[in-house]
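A.,

Following up on our hallway conversation. Structure tokens first:
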């Protein structure tokens, strides 16, 4: 039993060294937010607030980068999610995304695909009830016209 304890200590030390070591890798997200070039013409302030709290961290150039976005490997995952989110829909460059995104955006909210579960686990405001989803869907019907 004593021998296994020694291996466990060695394994913990190796894991600690690896964790510290990956913090110095020059790979990860650029946490700068690009310039906002165009935004939706919101008609409902409540819907705008919902979208900003549930969607903007990944789907805008106004990402709030939390403290853990500076710690690898979490920083790598967040960077990937933000890059991917901005590629699919970016409310800060809305003129580029306005055409052809209405149905996909509405469907992803109605089916609960957005916001994703991994985001909701860290952001309680992203848990949307049916009424909040409908508020967002109604607003998306208007702004994507």
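Then the amino acids I'd put at each of the 145 positions:
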């Amino acid at each position: 039993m004593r021998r296994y304890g020694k291996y466990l200590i060695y394994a913990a030390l190796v894991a600690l060294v690896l964790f510290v070591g990956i913090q110095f890798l020059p790979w990860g997200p650029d946490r700068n937010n690009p310039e906002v070039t165009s935004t939706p013409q919101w008609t409902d302030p409540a819907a705008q607030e919902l979208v900003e709290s549930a969607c903007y961290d990944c789907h805008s150039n106004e990402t709030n980068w939390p403290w853990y976005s500076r710690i690898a490997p979490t920083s790598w995952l967040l960077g990937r999610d933000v890059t991917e989110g901005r590629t699919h829909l970016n409310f800060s460059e809305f003129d580029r995304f306005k055409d052809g995104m209405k149905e996909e955006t509405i469907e992803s909210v109605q089916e609960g695909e957005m916001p994703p579960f991994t985001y909701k686990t860290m952001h309680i405001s992203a848990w949307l009830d049916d009424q909040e989803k409908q508020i967002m869907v109604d607003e998306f019907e208007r702004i994507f016209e």
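Residues 2-22 form the longest helix (21 residues). Curious whether your intuition agrees with the design.

B.
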